[in-house]
């Protein structure tokens, strides 16, 4: 997932470790979940573009997955168990051909929309096809690349013939034909583009105002493009066909556009409706966390999660002096991760990283530290490498960062790096840019700086969408948004990406992704800094807290409020 798209995923529902600071089943005396009541969601970012074609989510998202069911979905369990793909509308996670270029799904019996009409395979085909319409853009881009003959398709409004790559031989069967082997297709099938859309009810760009529900809730109100979203029970949803969503509350009221400090203050106070409130996009900051930690009641209402996400330094090796691997290695040794962690909010909110892949089994995490600097950096080793690189008296470089106060690519992190490198004889000049300018500059091959802060998050919990966009040379984009910041085009790396993509055994694939991460790490094209930790408050009447290693945040499909 593009780094610029991470906020969309986090707002919709990101990925994670089970809660460590709270009773996983909820605070209070009676922790048994009950049906009924209203769950309030307090968010900073509005749930914009509430159309399955336009949403860019991880695992179907958080609020969206209450309305849109997909062929597969994420397992709604705490911790590592939550990284598994499980069936949703389909009877299984998909049946691949021998070379994983054809995937076949069969729909469960008895699936219906909110009006009681049956869900068919043709509806899923149509839902996918409309996601290609230019006016409904915004969703995950994989299908355009993966499906045979889909590259130039403009959607059903302009091309009524549809996509031959998707076949529906009967009402319960759907078959996908791919350009190349894709063993991780079941992960992709969790995206909302795989939600069924009845053609007769499609209202184009207005569909988001009242999309036809296939999930446990239906939309009854959508104000100001998702700023206020109200969901009520879909009486035609059957738990017998849906093992994942608990759907305890009768009503879900999503209120957005709120300041993060206000959200945390309201959740902390838990007055009135806020006692049954959660947030899907607002973390506790360092100061707020310090206050919460000192209050036993508040501390019991903090969910802790880890999304598959890495903050790192990126190098452009086409720009001097970063064309010299010894300079890149010197900076890797000089980094003081302890000071970086402090700048990111402390060890409760950030964990040090020496690998590009996150520290989770599903990604194929393989421990390595090619340039061991300890907690505080190794300036002497850095000076030694600089001398070998022809810079015995040190050098001066410019570090580009964002001015956004995000504790990730912001001035605090840049300053910590500046201080650490100074000890190694490297003078760092800081270039802070406004968020849009920063994003435009670092993602354009023509303007990409030599030394800058970056981050990357996963579209699903696997090494594939983490390593391929950053290190596969065939994904270098010369006339658009480019994420292969090191401009790496190594035939052996590209070939290994292809070889792993052929694997349908995801455990075996994970091991190969981990080995590839270790191999790429030797090239010192990035300096992994830290993985963020999410700490989020919830109201005192909220029960049944589930936080998976897929999303990292409380899963509202599991929450009860009575």
UniProtKB/TrEMBL annotation:
Superkingdom: Bacteria
InterPro entries, per database record: Peptide/Ni-bd (IPR030678), SBP_5 (IPR039424), SBP_5_dom (IPR000914)
Region annotation (Disordered) ranges: 18-38, 197-221
MF GO annotations: peptide transmembrane transporter activity
Domain Solute-binding protein family stretches: 84-474
Extent of Basic and acidic residues compositional bias: 199-211
GO cellular component, one term: ATP-binding cassette (ABC) transporter complex
Alphabetized PANTHER family for the sequence: ABC TRANSPORTER SUBSTRATE-BINDING PROTEIN, PERIPLASMIC BINDING COMPONENT OF ABC TRANSPORTER
Listed name of the protein: Peptide/nickel transport system substrate-binding protein
Organism the protein comes from: Streptomyces caelestis
């Amino acid at each position: 997932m593009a780094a610029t798209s991470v906020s969309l995923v986090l707002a919709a529902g990101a990925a994670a470790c089970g809660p460590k600071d709270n009773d996983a089943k909820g605070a209070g005396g009676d922790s048994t979940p009950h049906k009924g009541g209203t769950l309030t969601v307090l968010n900073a970012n509005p749930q914009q573009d509430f159309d399955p074609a336009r949403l860019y989510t991880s695992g179907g998202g958080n609020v969206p997955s209450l309305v849109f069911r997909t062929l597969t979905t994420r397992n709604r369990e705490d911790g590592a168990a939550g990284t598994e793909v499980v069936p949703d509308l389909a009877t299984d996670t998909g049946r691949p051909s021998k070379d994983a270029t054809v995937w076949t799904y069969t729909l469960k019996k008895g699936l219906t929309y909110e009006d009681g009409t049956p869900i068919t395979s043709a509806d899923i085909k149509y839902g996918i096809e409309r996601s290609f319409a230019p006016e409904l853009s915004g969703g995950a881009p994989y299908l355009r690349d993966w499906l045979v003959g889909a590259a130039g398709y403009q959607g059903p409004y302009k091309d009524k013939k549809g996509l031959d790559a998707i076949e529906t031989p009967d009402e319960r069967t759907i078959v996908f034909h791919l350009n190349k082997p894709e063993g991780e297709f079941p992960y992709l099938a969790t995206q909302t583009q795989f939600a069924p859309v009845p053609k007769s009810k499609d209202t184009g760009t207005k569909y988001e105002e009242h999309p036809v529900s296939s999930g446990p809730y239906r939309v009854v109100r959508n104000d100001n493009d998702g700023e206020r979203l109200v969901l009520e029970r879909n009486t035609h949803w059957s738990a017998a066909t849906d093992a994942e969503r608990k759907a305890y509350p009768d009503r879900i009221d999503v209120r957005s556009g709120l300041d993060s400090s206000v959200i945390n203050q309201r959740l902390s106070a838990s007055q009135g409706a806020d006692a049954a409130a959660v947030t899907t996009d607002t973390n506790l900051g360092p100061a707020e966390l310090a206050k919460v930690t000192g209050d036993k009641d508040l501390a019991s209402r903090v969910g802790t999660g880890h999304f598959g996400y890495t903050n790192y330094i990126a190098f452009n090796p086409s720009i001097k002096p970063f064309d010299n691997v010894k300079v890149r290695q010197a900076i890797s040794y000089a980094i003081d991760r302890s000071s970086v962690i402090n700048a990111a909010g402390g060890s409760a909110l950030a964990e040090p990283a020496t690998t590009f892949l996150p520290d989770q089994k599903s990604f194929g995490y393989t421990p390595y530290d090619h340039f061991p600097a300890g907690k505080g950096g190794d300036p002497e080793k850095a000076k030694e490498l600089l001398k070998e690189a022809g810079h015995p008296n040190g050098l001066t470089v410019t570090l580009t960062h964002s001015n956004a106060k995000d504790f990730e690519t912001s001035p605090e992190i840049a300053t910590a790096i500046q201080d650490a490198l100074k000890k190694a004889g490297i003078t760092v000049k800081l270039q802070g840019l406004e968020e849009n300018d920063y994003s435009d500059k670092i993602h354009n091959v023509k303007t990409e700086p030599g030394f800058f802060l970056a981050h990357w998050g996963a579209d699903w919990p696997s090494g594939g969408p983490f390593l391929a966009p950053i290190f596969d040379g065939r994904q270098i984009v010369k006339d658009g948004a480019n994420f292969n910041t090191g401009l790496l085009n190594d035939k052996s790396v590209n070939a290994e990406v292809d070889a792993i993509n052929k694997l349908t055994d995801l455990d075996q694939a994970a091991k190969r992704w981990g080995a590839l991460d270790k191999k790429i790490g030797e090239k010192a094209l990035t300096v992994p800094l830290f993985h963020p930790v999410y700490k989020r408050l919830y109201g005192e009447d909220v029960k049944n807290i589930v936080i998976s290693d897929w999303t990292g945040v409380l899963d509202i499909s599991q929450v009860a409020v009575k």
